[in-house]
Amino acid sequence: MEQAFQEGQLILINKPYLWTSFDVVNFVRNLLRRDLGLPKTKIGHAGTLDPLATGLLILVTGKFTKKIESLQDLEKEYTGTMVFGTSTPSFDLETEPDAHYPYDHLTGEMLQQACQAFTGDIQQVPPVFSAIKIGGKRAYKFARKQQDVRLAPRPVHIEKLELTRIAFPEVDFRVVCSKGTYIRSLVRDLGLAVGSGAYLSALCRTRIGNYSLSDAQEPEAYRMSLSGQGAANS
Fold it and tell me: Which residues contact 201 (CB under 8 A, 6 or more apart)?
């Protein structure tokens, strides 16, 4: 068992709401130490998820940690919900609303047309409430102190953006995109494009490359399966 984790394991976890990506890594690391007695096993994740997001998180161990960069480069798929008529500084539920906008002029056809402008290769400004480093310090640390933060636009690719439910002010969507895409920024920009405001109220990562959320385990389920493996090899 120890050799298997040292040689490399790829672990698919369904990240719970409010857990950080590091929380998941730490949870699995502690399992390896406590249940399998593997205190020196390398472990990392291949692409972070915000605490307010759920869904697929890929963990790798041992020699597979060398694959992190290639896994991060894979196409991502998300589903989520955006709320029109309101904006927040973080573009999601992390912060309280800071402005309200009309949304009764919106139609499904208007949103569908607006989505076309946000597909393909686009330039996107990341949220100031993000882990992007500015002078060695995370941008969100400046933002939380209400200090002025300016982030440069970045090129991203949106392969597909489709609306799956329209019940204003809520709209559900599915997006397929490149690495580095901030769905919160996409929602913010879409709200502005249709003369309103919008924030992200729910987000789930459903796919990374060919790895699917349907194949992932909740942390507790993984603990149970790992304990079973440890018992079988004892």
Answer: 80, 81, 82, 83, 92, 93, 170
Q: What are the CA-CA distances from residue 43 to residues 34, 47, 52, 111, 194 (Å)?
A: 15, 13, 23, 42, 43
The answer to whether the pTM exceeds 0.85 is yes
User: CA 120 → CA 27, 153, 177, 185, 216, distances in Å?
Assistant: 37, 15, 9, 15, 29
Helix residue ranges, H only, 10-59: 21-36
Name which of 101, 98, 89 is nearest 130 in CA terms: 89
Q: Are 28 and 59 within 8 A, CB to CB?
A: yes
Phi (first) and psi of residue 114, to 5 degrees: -65, -35
Please return the burial class of 87, using the count of CB atoms within 10 Å of its CB with bins 0-12, 13-18 and 19+. buried
Residues annotated as catalytic (active site), given as ranges = 50
Q: Is the peptide bond before 169 cis (omega within 30 degrees of 0)?
A: yes
All domains in the chain, ordered by first residue: 2-73+212-232 (3.30.2350.10), 76-208 (3.30.2350.10)
- Condensed to tens digits (0 to 9), the pLDDT of residues 82-128 reads 999 999 999 999 999 999 999 999 999 999 999 999 999 999 998 88
Helix (H, G, I), strand (E, B) or coil at 194: coil
Over the stretch 35-80, which tens digit does the pLDDT of each residue have?
888 888 899 999 999 999 999 999 999 999 999 999 999 999 999 9
Q: Which helix (H) or strand (E) covers residue 184, if one does? A: helix 183-193
